[in-house]
């Protein structure tokens, strides 16, 4: 019989782990305080422009011109919302933005997911070549003028939705993240599905995609936000106001307000334009803000799963 050595000192670290009591060091406490303080400052700096925008949207023009609006609305004013709501061009451009975002995101996700899945297979012939083509475009481009000639003249896409959604249909960063995710996908599942008689397309659509919700949701958010905020392509390739997205409407509004302010030297017209800018920007960013909480839970996991190859 082996007797227990009572003279042996207990392992305090083990006892603390077992009891759930962990004594924090002074350095760690200081780190936590500094970390929380920095994050709160970053949060405040990030949220201030948006809160200020909301305050201006509900404030009167006089208070905005006087610089009295910071975080709290001054002189509640809903007339500007009525002016914006009554503008048919605003709603037409808003509908265009929704259409461009949905179509552009669908095309981008179809191209990115299929391309990434093909590149994730080591046995693909010419795999290095196709990866190199994609990566090459991250560092070199044809330039603005050749792109304009190609899209407007040779392809004839001027005043077309294709000019907005096709040129940016593939993000190489998103492609590489999704490729890494598919490389970590369990091959046993695909082999079992192949034994059951599924083709390559069947495996991709019925097995791989349903189990890739995290990375798909993350990439969808990336593409959707990019298309929603995009304005330069439409500004460059479209001259019909009824085809503009709402971002171009907002850009023209800001440009007009800047010109009005220079002419009137801060007069009443410039004050009204400043208030309309705030209302329009608020209505523009509101859908993304409402959508983000439903996708946020996939965001971190999707990026981490696709960026680290284990």
Automatic annotation (TrEMBL):
Top-level division of the source organism's lineage: Bacteria
Membrane topology: Multi-pass membrane protein
GO BP of this protein: transmembrane transport
InterPro entries reported for this sequence: MetI-like, MetI-like_sf
Signal peptide: none
Record localization: Cell membrane
Domain (ABC transmembrane type-1) ranges: 94-287
Assigned keywords, A-Z: Cell membrane, Membrane, Transmembrane, Transmembrane helix, Transport
Regions that span the bilayer: 33-51, 98-117, 129-155, 161-182, 203-225, 276-295
Entry GO CC: plasma membrane
Family per record: Belongs to the binding-protein-dependent transport system permease family.
PANTHER family assigned to the protein according to its UniProt record, in alphabetical order: ABC TRANSPORTER PERMEASE PROTEIN MG189-RELATED-RELATED, POLYGALACTURONAN_RHAMNOGALACTURONAN TRANSPORT SYSTEM PERMEASE PROTEIN YTCP
Protein name: Carbohydrate ABC transporter permease
